[in-house]
């Protein structure tokens, strides 16, 4: 069988004088295809978070795209020295990293160590676009930011600087970073935050870590993470995550909303025994947990056929497919030919969809049957409600909002992973 047809058996049973059965068959066909595709995606090897988030980070300086006439880059491609005598503002020795700053993360950061401030200490650290004029200080031209050592000023896209932080000289370690969550640049000196500045929306495209020297014998060493930073980046990241978590925790929610979400999930998927234990535990709390109807939980649709759905789920999870089919024929003969692709085969284990009988996929089959039974409820107001519980709808909305926010930031910031978000509160509290 080359294509999946959920109503492939005994098609005459699907006919009805009033068309109701045909309508139900169409609904079940769509539900079956939805869960079958879900199973296929689940059976494929999904990329890990690390694989999804992996980007090439800068490791060295780009000796090709630099103002090479005014500086010398050591063979390790991590040290820069100004070897000329500057005569005007276009004699700057500028060099970018070999790769742009990665964007699929919360923070990016690098540091420079000032080995020698040279004649004037006109050293700068910052970020520039690939097309930046390589004979100008970062921050002097559009689409660039720079923190300068001789005056401590911040320059952002034009020649006029603004008071920002202390000057820096020989022996100092200075860092530059991007906070993608807050859309800010931040700079450090000797392991301490100097200040932050908002990223302007006009800056588009990849940003390259950039270093500049501009007077005789100025020399800096660049650290892209190949050795320990002077600044505690992990602690800073933890503080940023805590800040976001505290913002979330300030949001007011209706009383006992989490209880209602969990209960609706157990009802939706037919976990009757767990539901009874859950209700028993909630009654023993002081005071007892109560869910107000105005919180939006309507249990009438998902209480439907609870015991039967529980029984079928247990049979399917135990691999007792014949028993499950027998029960379906007794209870819901109108959906037997539509309840899943497996039912189209005399020997489903040997079929092209036999992978659905693998232990790891049985919940998907059980979910398909569960959704189809819910769809037979004559009082079901929204057939889409057969697919997902309230809890899952909420999590899907959370996912959509996070992706939309990331898109608004030019796809910068951490790639969204639901379980990472769910575990963030636990990690912070521990």
Describe the protein's architecture and organization:
This protein is an alpha+beta fold and 430 residues long. It is 33% helix and 17% strand. The protein folds into two domains: 61-244, SPRY domain (Jelly Rolls, Sandwich); 255-387, no CATH class. The chain has helices at 20-43, 49-53, 233-249, 257-268, 272-283, 300-303, 306-317, 321-331, 362-375, 390-408, 418-429; strands at 61-66, 71-73, 79-82, 93-97, 107-116, 124-128, 144-148, 153-156, 162-163, 173-179, 184-189, 192-198, 208-213, 219-223. A seven-stranded antiparallel β-sheet has the order 1-4-13-6-7-8-9, with no helix packed on it. It starts with 19 loop residues before the first helix and ends with a helix. This is SPla/RYanodine receptor domain-containing protein isoform 3. It comes from Theobroma cacao (Cacao). Residues 305-343 form the CTLH domain. Pfam families: SPRY.
> How many structural units, i.e. domains?
2
Structural class: alpha+beta
CATH topology of the largest domain: Jelly Rolls
Number of helices: 11
**Uncertain parts:** 1-20
Broad shape: elongated
CATH evolutionary superfamily of the largest domain: SPRY domain
**How many DSSP E strands?**
14
Radius of gyration: 31 Å
Termini Cα gap: 52 Å
Strand content range: 15-25%
Q: Taking all residues together, what is the mean pLDDT?
A: 80
- Overall CATH architecture of the largest domain: Sandwich
Q: H/E order of the elements?
A: HHEEEEEEEEEEEEEEHHHHHHHHH
């Amino acid at each position: 069988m080359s294509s999946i047809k959920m109503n492939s058996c005994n098609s005459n049973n699907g006919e009805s004088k009033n068309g109701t059965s045909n309508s139900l068959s169409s609904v079940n066909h769509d539900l079956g295809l939805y869960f079958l595709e879900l199973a296929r995606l689940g059976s494929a090897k999904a990329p890990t978070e690390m694989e999804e988030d992996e980007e090439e980070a800068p490791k060295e300086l780009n000796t090709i795209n630099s103002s090479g006439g005014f500086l010398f880059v050591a063979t390790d491609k991590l040290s820069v020295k100004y070897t000329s005598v500057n005569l005007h503002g276009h004699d700057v020795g500028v060099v970018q990293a070999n790769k742009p700053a990665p964007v699929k993360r919360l923070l990016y950061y690098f540091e420079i160590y000032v080995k020698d401030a040279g004649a004037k200490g006109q050293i700068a650290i910052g970020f520039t676009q690939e097309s930046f004029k390589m004979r100008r200080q970062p921050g002097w031209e559009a689409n660039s930011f720079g923190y300068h050592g001789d005056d401590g000023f911040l320059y952002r896209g034009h020649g006029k600087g603004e008071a920002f932080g202390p000057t820096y000289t020989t022996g100092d370690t200075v860092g530059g970073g991007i906070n993608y969550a807050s859309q800010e640049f931040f700079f450090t000196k000797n392991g301490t935050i100097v200040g932050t500045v908002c990223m302007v929306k006009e800056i588009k495209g990849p940003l390259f870590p950039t270093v500049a020297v501009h007077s005789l014998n100025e020399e800096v060493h660049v650290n892209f993470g190949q050795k320990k930073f002077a600044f505690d980046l992990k602690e800073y990241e933890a503080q940023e995550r805590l800040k976001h978590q505290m913002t979330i925790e300030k949001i007011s929610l209706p009383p006992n909303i989490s209880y209602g979400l969990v209960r609706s999930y157990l009802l939706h998927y037919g976990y009757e025994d767990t539901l009874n234990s859950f209700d028993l535990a909630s009654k023993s709390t002081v005071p007892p947990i109560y869910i107000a109807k105005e919180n939006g939980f309507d249990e009438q649709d998902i209480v439907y056929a609870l015991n039967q759905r529980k029984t079928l789920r247990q049979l399917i999870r135990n691999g007792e497919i014949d028993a499950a089919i027998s029960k379906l024929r007794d209870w819901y003969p109108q959906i037997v030919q539509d309840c899943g692709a497996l039912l189209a085969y005399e020997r489903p284990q040997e079929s092209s969809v036999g992978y659905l009988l693998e232990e790891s996929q049985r919940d998907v089959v059980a979910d398909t049957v569960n959704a189809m039974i819910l769809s037979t409820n004559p009082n079901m107001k929204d057939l889409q409600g057969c697919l997902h519980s309230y809890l899952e709808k909420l999590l899907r909305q959370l996912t959509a909002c996070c992706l939309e926010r990331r898109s608004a930031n030019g796809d910068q910031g951490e790639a969204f992973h639901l379980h990472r978000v769910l575990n963030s509160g636990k990690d912070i509290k521990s």
